[in-house]
Design goal:
By secondary structure, this protein is an alpha/beta fold. The protein is built from ten helices and 20 strands. Helix 1 (about 25-35) runs parallel beside helix 9, helix 2 (about 75-85) crosses helix 9 (about 350-365) and helix 9 (about 350-365) crosses helix 10.
């Protein structure tokens, strides 16, 4: 059954040059980069804290900025945010070899990563964004777009005020789910492999706070009829997500109880994620894909990333951030254009979100005064910010 909504007038707000959708690491990096280019920047976030999975999801491991062989490859905002995350002390894995002048041998043994407190980092990140002139709109979802001649002209928003719209000049989709790209008809691709049950949590035992990286595969949901086979949670169905969350929390609690019994003493559940831990859902169809071939030179590279799973490093081509069918839309983080399989898995994590966010934010800022910028303009601006574009520069 379908119904037809009655016509209504929607209030349009204006005054921003760049709109960034999603306040995770990718969106925060994009907003910072755009604001630092002197653009009036709006960051639209559905939740009420920045950081996404890295804060509200308790995925508090800032994965490596290095290649696993003693060489740093990610710079700029990616390094800035790592340092900010442990400004008040690392929870664990403090990268002393990297921040304390260690030798190449020491840096090879210890990768450039850290574990951080999600709450102090979220507030520090929020204050950084505000100090750089980013305007943050919390509790707001993008529910549609207006386009004209391959350009997004307005974003429709839903929040406590109801439905409004914002006029935009350029947009960065850092939603994690390519929400803007899908609404704009920019071309998207859905992950057919799916996601697994995952819910990291903290508990207290013997006065020690412990992070549990709870994750498991499954073949049948326990809440209602089975809707998924062979571990294929798309993350793009609200009913499915609700059943998955209920099942995940039940399994997580069982895991916590079992750990408590093993501890042999009183334990306390400290913190659970407030958003769903989804790894890969939907991404844009880009003007090219990041295929992540180890140490292959990309002439249009906007930065370098390491492989968080094992030694290796890659250059990210500019076209993987650009929507194929919309000229003023860029993507960052896990919804950028990357090849299926390993490449998408490599490109979904925190350092890559920051690297691609910075590049997309700069490109969106440069586009405000004219057509989408040439890659050379973006590369010049990135170099000025200390980003190393090629692995040979690292």
């Amino acid at each position: 059954m379908l119904i037809t909504e009655r016509e209504r007038e929607t209030l349009v707000q204006s005054g921003w040059d760049v709109a960034v959708v999603g306040g995770g690491f990718a969106g925060a990096a994009a907003a910072l980069a755009a604001a630092r280019q002197g653009r009036k920047t709006l960051l639209i976030e559905r939740e009420f804290l920045p950081g996404g999975l890295g804060t509200l999801g308790l995925v508090t491991v800032y994965l490596p900025l290095c290649d696993g062989m003693g060489k740093q490859v990610s710079f700029g905002i990616a390094e800035e945010l790592l340092r900010l995350s442990i400004k008040r002390g690392a929870q664990s894995h403090y990268p002393s070899a990297w921040l304390g002048g260690g030798s190449v041998e020491e840096r090879t043994r210890q990768r450039f990563l850290a574990c951080y407190n999600p709450w102090t980092f979220a507030i520090d990140l929020e204050q950084l964004l505000v100090s750089e002139g980013v305007e943050i709109l919390y509790g707001t979802s993008v529910c549609g777009v207006e386009t004209k001649e391959r350009l997004i002209t307005h974003l429709y928003l839903e929040n406590i005020e109801g439905r409004t719209a914002v006029a935009v000049k350029s947009v960065v989709d850092a939603s994690g789910n390519a929400i803007v790209a899908e609404a704009a008809g920019a071309g998207t691709h859905v992950n057919s492999v799916g996601n697994v049950l995952s819910s990291w949590y903290y508990f207290l035992s013997g006065g020690e706070q412990k992070l549990v990286q709870f994750s498991e595969n499954f073949h049948k949901l326990e809440c209602g009829e089975p809707v998924i086979d062979n571990v294929a949670i798309t993350g793009l169905d609200a009913w499915e997500n609700s059943r998955v969350l209920i099942t995940t929390r039940k399994r997580m609690m069982e895991d916590f109880i079992a750990r408590g019994e093993k501890e042999g003493g009183p334990v306390e559940l400290l913190s659970v994620p407030t958003i769903q831990d989804l790894r890969m859902t939907r991404r844009i169809t880009g003007r090219c894909e990041a295929s992540c071939v180890d140490h292959r030179r990309e002439e249009t590279s906007i930065g370098c990333i390491g492989d968080w799973r094992h030694p290796g490093a890659y250059e990210i081509p500019y076209g993987s951030l650009r929507a194929e069918k919309i000229d003023n839309l860029w993507a960052a983080g896990r919804c950028m254009a990357s090849a299926d399989g390993d490449a998408w898995d490599i490109c979904r994590v925190i350092p890559v979100c920051a690297v691609t966010g910075e590049a997309s934010g700069i490109a969106a800022a440069l586009a405000v005064s004219g057509p989408g910028p040439d890659v050379r303009e973006v590369q010049i601006a990135l170099r000025e910010k200390g980003v190393r574009l090629h692995l040979s520069d690292c």
